[in-house]
Amino acid sequence: MRHVDFYVDTNIVLHIRRLDGAMRSKEGGPILFDDKRSFTIAIDTAEVGLTGLDLSVLLNDYVFGYKGSPLTHQHLRTEGDHIVLTGRLHKVITVNFEITGSLDVTRSGLIRIHPTKTKFLGLNGQKVMKLLGLSLEKLLDLKGATGATVRENDIFLDPAKILPPPSIEGRVVAVRVEGDQVVQLFGASQAHAREHALVPPDAQAPNYMYFKGGTLRFGRLLMLDAEMQIVDLDPNDVFRFDLTRYNAQLVAGYEHTLADGGLEVWMRDVDKLGAAGTTPAKPRLPLRGSR
Fold first, then answer.
1. How many structural domains does the chain have?
2. pLDDT over 60 (residue 76)
3. Which end of the chain, N or C, is less surrounded by CB atoms within 10 Å?
4. Three-class DSSP category at 258
5. Which of 173, 189, 19 is nearest to 108 (CA)?
6. Local confidence band at 290 (pLDDT 50, 70, 90 cut-offs)
7. Does residue 70 fall inside a structural domain?
8. How confident is the model at residue 287 (pLDDT cuts 50, 70, 90)?
9. Three-state DSSP state, 75
């Protein structure tokens, strides 16, 4: 994938700058586009961003979205090279909190939020906890959380568990704050990356998803030894793709059969489907028909 905003939820977008990997069926057989719970995206290398809004929804609805959660009404924003997390902490009484933290990655690939400043009800939380002999680990019971743990005063997030389907596999090797996004880098060895490198039929397309090999099923179409490149109808911005609404994106676009039986498909961005009076432009045919 190159320059794709991949919707894993209506309000959660993975801003994929680049991604190389494999899709694997959980039960064997073809990859079912129409059932995002049926497959896993195994990432070799990738650079993926999440905005503060994406992360806020993720924390509230998925990571801590369970009855009795000690953290609610969370809002995350970026500030310089740090993140700032606000919300409500429920422990005997409910208090408003604000945590400013740095980000790094553990050897096991977990994202660590290390608080550099903590406030409870506007007071210096670090001094209060030290005075009372407390830590976030003692204040937060995260047994019901999805992909989140706490040790002493650090919060750890597991990138493979905190997202809604489709599930992902992969090792995060670095994380950074860039603008309004938290950017994760997934890594593999350079030799492995070169061995699995793919060259799409339409190499000039700036925004696309390219699938090669295996069996794909979407709608009534079944592709054996698949080769399909999905290209953005509007190359002037990122390609916004939603698995739950891909059929409407497909209907609003075009497709072209390649000389080797593969497909190049032009899709409209999902957020442009409701644009009144718009007619898709005739697609540019790929420069190379087979390989």
1. 2
2. yes
3. C
4. coil
5. 173
6. very low
7. yes
8. very low
9. strand
Please name the amino acid found at residue 268: R
Q: What stretches of 210-269 show up as alpha helix (H) in DSSP?
A: 246-251
* Structural domain of 279: 198-291
Last residue of a domain, one of 160, 190, 220: 190
156 and 250 housed in the same domain: no
- pLDDT at position 127: 76
Task: Show Cβ contacts of residue 38 under 8 Å, excluding neighbours closer than 6 positions.
Answer: 25, 26, 27, 31, 32
Q: Are residues 93 and 185 in the same domain?
A: yes
Q: What is the Cα–Cα distance from 252 to 41, expressed in whole angstroms?
A: 26
Question: Domain for residue 32, yes or no?
Answer: no
Distance CA 69, CA 94 (A): 12
User: What per-residue confidence (pLDDT) applies to 190?
Assistant: 54
Q: Is 38 contained in some domain?
A: no
Q: Is 164 exposed, middle or buried (0-12, 13-18, 19+ CB in 10 A)?
A: middle
pLDDT tens profile 204-232: 999 999 999 999 998 888 999 999 999 99
Does residue 105 share a domain with residue 10? Answer: yes
- HSE of 198 in the Cβ direction (CA atoms, 13 Å)? 21
Quick one: 230 and 154 in the same domain? no
> Could you tell me if 210 and 198 are in contact, meaning their C-beta atoms sit under 8 angstroms apart?
yes
Whether residue 290 sits in one domain with residue 162? no
Chain center to CA of 126: 32
Are 99 and 212 members of one domain? no
**What DSSP letter does each residue of 166-192 carry, written as one string?**
SEEE--EEEEEEETTEEEEEE---HHH
